[in-house]
Amino acid sequence: MAEKRQTLQAITMGCSKNRVDTEHILAQAVSCYDILPEDWDGGADCLIINTCGFIGDAKEESVQMILQAVERKKAGDYGRIAVFGCLSQRYPDELPGLIPEVDAWFGARDFRPLLEYLGITSVGDFEIKRQLTTPSHYAYLKISEGCDRRCAYCAIPHIRGRHVSVPEEELVAEAEMLAAKGVKELIVIAQDTTYYGLDLYGKRMLADLLGKLSGIDGIEWIRIHYSYPDGFPRDVLDVMASNPKVCRYMDIPLQHISDKVLEMMHRHVDGEWTRALIREMRERVPGVVLRTTMIVGHPGEGKKEFGELLDFVREARFGRLGAFTYSEEEGTYGAEHYKDTVSSKEKQRRLDELMTLQSEISLDFNRSRVGDEVKVIVDGFSDGVYVCRSEFESPEVDGEILIKYDSQAVGGAEPYSLVGEFLEVRITGADEYDLIGEIIRVL
User: Fold this and answer.
1) What is the DSSP string of 22-73?
2) Residue 86 annotated as binding?
């Protein structure tokens, strides 16, 4: 009788870049373990937690997840717990003493030691193989590791190290493997996607990479995230405007608009330059939807500077906008050279005011789309409703398009058979986050 295989569960905290790391680990672990879903609540022989250590709230969430797992281990739900990722990379000396119930700790890039701990000594094609934890029709493609930027507020370079691009041939091989598994949408990610290629090829190569990825059979959408504004490669806009596989969607974290704050952040751009870049993007890629991120309460942001930020958001009218409050992080330039003078209460008030403004802008944007006929991908089906996205919505961070199942419109197809497929739909309603649509036809 065959020996029963042990079970392994992985929980990923933080960003999609961490998710890719977890998927590479699981692709190797599947040879020795039965892999349980991330939302599995029945316990496991071994639990691995990939942590985030970016800002205060993210660190707290990771610590709470570890503590919850420890309590479940005491109750017998988990046999072993191993923790890796950014939090344990950042606090390698402190954490083992604070949470001794964790069986093993590893850094953000300690993949081989973690696999050895799991009993996996034969590792093949680590950089290419993936065990997807997303729905099978989309996947994140991490094109580089680390960051050479030194933004005053950001601890990522201290945690992840210098920027290192993944060679084009490895990325194409990985994307081909994903396409063979049924992936139709690639979401290109990195700490800064626009920096891709500078270390390997001596020039920015994102546009060239997009062209190669779009040539892969089965890949129908390619989406770009995390593009730094300084030095943004304009040839990417040419590709976006001319290549139908590259979504007219750009995630470009701007962080602020005040010249004073941008200088203190070490962003290497000013407000006038930022406005010009936004105008150029919209002129060269008609219909592009821009997603950005802002920080409120950064040192140097007084009432005047925050007012400038609000005025800019009203003016620019981003289709998507996220924001977070400044967190003083040890090891950063900001923590060492600036005083964090804005109270937590005032930071939260500014955040609430900014997001209230953005919700009004988002509602206007969504209402403007009523009547549009768009191509969508079906992410899921529940209670008679399809959850979908167009090229203008990214998974996990943006709103959704909700569509009632219509047997006649889909030619009698079973509802679940269309998950991962493309539909043509008409937008019929909108709120500040989501859209309502009706099916025109299956594509």
Assistant:
1) HHHHHHHHTTTEEEEPTT--S-EEEEEEEE--SSHHHHHHHHHHHHHHHHHH
2) yes
CA 243/CA 186 separation, integer angstroms: 14
Gap between the Cα atoms of 232 and 363, Å rounded: 29
The reply to whether 147 sits in an annotated binding site is: yes
Question: SS3 of 210, please?
Answer: helix
Residue 32, annotated ligand binder?
no
Q: Of 119, 120, 103, 130, give the one whose Cα is nearest residue 47.
A: 103
- Say what the pLDDT of residue 56 is: 83
Identify whether the C-beta of residue 59 lies closer than 8 Å to the C-beta of residue 26: no
Radius of gyration of the chain (CA): 22
Residue 86 CB coordination number (10 Å): 28
Note whether 106 and 117 are within 8 A (CB).
Answer: yes
Please give the Cα distance from 433 to 398 (Å, whole number).
8
pLDDT at 3 (0 to 100): 67
User: Beta 164-165 vs 401-404: how paired, if at all?
Assistant: unpaired
Per residue in 7-46, pLDDT (tens digit) is 999 999 999 999 999 999 999 999 899 999 999 999 999 9
Q: Return the sign of the alpha-carbon dihedral for residues 381, 387, 391, 396.
A: negative
Could you tell me the CA-to-CA distances from 11 to 26, 68, 87, 159 in Å, in that order? 11, 12, 14, 20
CA–CA distance, 442 with 302 (Å, rounded to integer): 52
Tell me the one-letter amino acid at 224.
I
Mean pLDDT of 415-436: 95
Dist. CA 20–CA 42, nearest whole Å: 24
**Amino acid identity, position 276:** A
> In degrees rounded to 5, what are phi and psi of residue 247?
-60, 140
What 3-state DSSP class applies to 428?
strand
User: What is the model's pTM?
Assistant: 0.94
Give CA–CA dist 33/397, Å, rounded.
31
Is 151 known to sit in a ligand binding site? yes
Fill in the DSSP letter of residue 15: -
The token pair that represents 92 in the structure block:
């390698």
What is d(CA 275, CA 155) in angstroms, rounded to the nearest whole number?
A: 27
User: What gap in Å lies between CA 26 and CA 45, rounded to an integer?
Assistant: 15
* 80-117 per-position pLDDT tens digit: 999 999 999 999 999 999 999 999 999 999 999 999 99
pLDDT digit string, tens, across residues 365-399:
999 999 999 999 999 999 999 999 999 999 999 99
Structure tokens at 226: 């995390």
DSSP structure string for 315-358: HH--SEEEEEE----TTSHHHHH----S-HHHHHHHHHHHHHHH
